[in-house]
Predict the structure.
Amino acid sequence: MARCPRCETEVVDPTKDYWKYGVFKVKMYECPCGNQFREYFIFGSVTIEFVWCLLVSFLLIVGSLWFVADQAHRTVTLEEARQVQIALKARMSERTASSIFVNNLAASWFLVAPYVGLILFGVTLCNTAWHIGVLAVAQQTAPQTLVAKALVFGFAETLAYTVMLAENLYLSWIIVKKPREDATARLTSHSWKSFLLYLVLLFLGAVLEERAL
Ligand SMILES: [Zn+2]
């Protein structure tokens, strides 16, 4: 089932079932209005638009971390940074996998809400990035080095946020651009999969982080 981009009619059956093009799957539709259009999927049923959202989300996360950490690095003095470092160390030493999981969940679950979730997540992300920049000052290293380290060691956690942010962006886009049924359809048939994947990745990230401590 797909919606004609010209007249917004829902077309149920593709003209050809589908054909494969590497990892891509293409479905072709013919609308009663005469318009022919295609739908592109990757790895089975993931739409190409969602893949774009994943890519944009990842770049947004990395870009924000990079930029804000750099700003903090330029602003904070060594003495201030050392104080923050001591406070952070005390907090970090008490952490367990489950407390890390709950913390990260509390800091990002609101991404389930389109728009509002984006703003809240943006604030959390900038806050984290700021702390990375401050730690870079305390450790007298480049903020980019710490951001890179955080991305490598926290790759599962980063992927979790990427998936959830992408789902948020995708839903927000559908709400603006498509009829209401499409948003409902996305929520009931696919969004929960993203949420499940987010939970699994976040949990994996927490377990890995506890081991690294
Ligand atoms: Zn049409």
